[in-house]
Amino acid sequence: MRDWLIGLAVAVACLLASWGLLVLLARRLPPGILRDLAAFIPDCLTTVRRLRADPRVPRKAKIAIVVAGLWLASPIDLIPEFLPVIGPLDDIVVVALALRYAGRQVPREVLLAAWPGEPRLLLRLLGPARTPAPEPPAA
Fold first, then answer.
1. N or C: which end of the chain has fewer CB within 10 A?
2. Distance of CA 63 to the CA centre of its chain
3. What is the pLDDT averaged over residues 47-66?
4. CA-CA-CA-CA torsion for 100, 102, 108, 110, nearest 10 degrees?
5. Residue 95: exposed, middle, or buried by beta-carbon count in 10 A (0-12, 13-18, 19+)?
6. What is the predicted pLDDT for the residue at 83?
7. pTM higher than 0.85 for the full model?
C-alpha cells in the first residue's frame, strides 16, 4: 500500500510540475507560437470554469466542457504528462474537440468572452462562423 501511495504522490507531483511549467512558459516566452501553445491549456481551464457557470451555455455543451476539464485534471492520460513535448498533446486534442463542439452550441460572443487568451487562437480553433441557411423564396 505504501508503494502505491508513493507512486500516486510522484504522479501528482509530475502533473503539477508540468502544469506549473506550462504556466511559467506562457508568461515568460516571447509572443509567438510557442507561447500560444504553452498558454493553451491554462486558457482552456479558465474557459471551462467560466463557461460552466454561464447560464447561456446549453446543458449538452456544459457536459462536454466539464468532461474536457476533467480530462485535463485527470492524472491518467493516453500520453503521460511528464514527456516533454508530446505529454500535453492528448489534453490539447480533447479540449480542442470539446471547444469545437461547444462552439456549435454556444454563441461565439459567449465563447470569446470566456476565453482569457489571444482571441485569434480560439477563432482559428472554432473555424469560420456558420451562417444561417437562406430562406426559400415564397411561391
1. C
2. 14
3. 85
4. -140
5. buried
6. 67
7. no
Give whole-number Cα distances, 66 to 11, 28, 32, 57, in Å.
22, 29, 29, 12
For residue 86, which phi and psi values (nearest 5 degrees)? -90, -5
Q: Give CA–CA dist 26/80, Å, rounded.
A: 20
| Cα-based angle 7, 12, 15 (whole degrees, multiple of 5) | 125
For the residues 98-116, what does the mean pLDDT come to? 84
Can you tell me the distance from the alpha carbon of 15 to that of 36, in angstroms, rounded to the nearest whole number? Answer: 20
Which grid coordinates belong to 76? Answer: 491518467
Alpha helix (H) ranges present in the chain?
A: 2-28, 33-53, 59-73, 89-105, 108-114, 119-126
